[in-house]
Amino acid sequence: MADASSSLPHWLARGMADLFPAGDPSDPDQALDARLKAADKAGRPLRIKLGIDPTGSDIHLGHSILFRKLRAFQDAGHTAVLIIGDFTARIGDPTGKSATRVQLSKEQVEANATTYLRQLGQGQPKERALLDFETPGRLEVRRNSEWLEGLDLPQVIGLLGTATVGQMLAKDDFSKRYGSGTPIALHEFLYPLLQGYDSVAVEADVELGGTDQKFNVAMGRDLQRHFGKGTQFGLLLPILVGLDGVQKMSKSLGNTVGLEDDPLSMYSKLEKVGDGAINDYVTLLTDLDLNALPDNPREKQKAMALAVTASRHGIEAATKAQADAATLVGGAGDAAAEVPEASLAEVNFPAKAFYLLSAVGICASSSEARRQIQGGGVKLDGEKLSDPNQEFAGPDQLAGKVLQLGKKTFRRLVA
Question: What is the CA radius of gyration of the chain?
Fold first, then answer.
């Protein structure tokens, strides 16, 4: 995308994976730079659409890439149109899915939406929030039930008439499922059309999405044209690789960093990002100049981890987390380190080591705890635990000590 992005401001082009259309550089309908200049001349902020379906309750750093770009548009004076897909979430985006999604209730979706908005910064100062909820004119939060719930059957049939079965089966996910004989429910074909209609309803100039969303974003552009509206640009960003350095960041894969992770956990996880992914993390999650960072991968990891943690918790907390991580990984159970606490109140004593790890929430199960201890990945106040059956008589034996799993997870045990 070097040619398409060369004329764009740096804040916009940074990290961009795809931009379409990218035609006549002087045509505001074919070149985003021309659209930006035309809007500036007219004194009109662009309307930047980002749709999110609240099918879960947590946002991780992989999701934050799109919100960071949306915030960049806000800071440049444009209007972010954040669409809560409270209607489309009840269908479920088929993108990346090998089977039909379980449909959520309206109440489940609304509960998730509330937690999403809080994590994005609703009610917080804009300096600490992922999105600017404070500055007038910079953010519209819309729920697509506003316009989708009222569609009658003739309108739905009209929407269905704008696309063909061939077009739908050209979508990679549908194609794979059809080819393998995996069922595709008819309502799933509605999803790209309904989210595309969102672009018509909010009159989007630009829609943001991941590289896996190109089909859906293009559908919005097609429907705008069908309904006689101005057409949007699609600006796509990369999918962030998770902490394992292999697969995309996903809670189900256990390779995420959550927006609400405490400073020490966030820093410790990010400091261990693999060398192959570090440049992408710097580019997509920070404003650091990659060329100004040391070539040493270890120093680059630390700079990135500090910057990301500071963006969520402030530089003072991030610097403290960096110092605490160095102390704790070095093997000292420093009493001054600000380590997240884990209560021993619900632990049944006497307790064996493998049970303790699962009881305080460090491991998901006792079997996982056994594997971690046997693999040498667990320490108590810097001393390695080697026997899963080591027994602790009571909370007094553990209170105040730091339980460590690998180099990323620390918990101070409290009675």
Answer: 24
